[in-house]
Amino acid sequence: MIVGNDMGEIKTKKILLMTDHHMSASVVNGLEAEGYYVYNRACQDFEIELLETLEPTAVMIDLDYPSIEGISICQTLRTCYDGPILVLTAKTDEIVQIMGLEMGADDFLLKPQSKNYLLVKLRACLRRSEKYRVQEKKTVQLGELIVDSARREVLCSGAIIPLTTREFDLLWCLAEKAKNIVSREEIHQALYNSEYNGFDRSIDIYVSRIRQKIGDDSLHPRYLKTIRGAGYLLVEGYSE
To answer: For position 239, what pLDDT does the model report?
Structure first.
């Protein structure tokens, strides 16, 4: 079932909402009141072609009973979608959340939450995704690693590296200050627009994923270096 107008019409603010249960009408109504067109699909009915047809502004995945199997849809999405993915879960499970981030989710939101808070989180994800699309072209190159902020594109050794929204934002945060140490607090502020609480390990997960994708050895990275007790450093040819 499609909630909203026909998919054949041109829309500018479209949310693909995938669930493993019947979606709350208040959530859908809240999104529509904000001007979003909501397209509701059951997780088991998802097909890649839907993304090509719909071209959603963001994807929301609502799971009553989060599991590795359910969250793995993020991995499927990331093969052809680089926009924000927000996961709503009824239960908190650190392992599932870590797996979800590893598979491409940008953020998790524990239910129940008010529709206003949900909208705030959604707008924050969209701001992070959109803010680089309107800025002047700026490219940072370190050896064979090229980070293009205007195109939100990363190349390494001539190959395009597919990054999620959060992964690119983190890498660009480091690229803007290439050859300088960037603290965990600075990165957290750039990604989440909030102060670091000293416990969140999501940055470590994103760094690990970026290293894997650009072929960096975690023990002796060429580009993305951890500076113990200080933060992270993006520099070409750095070694112990």
So the answer is: 46
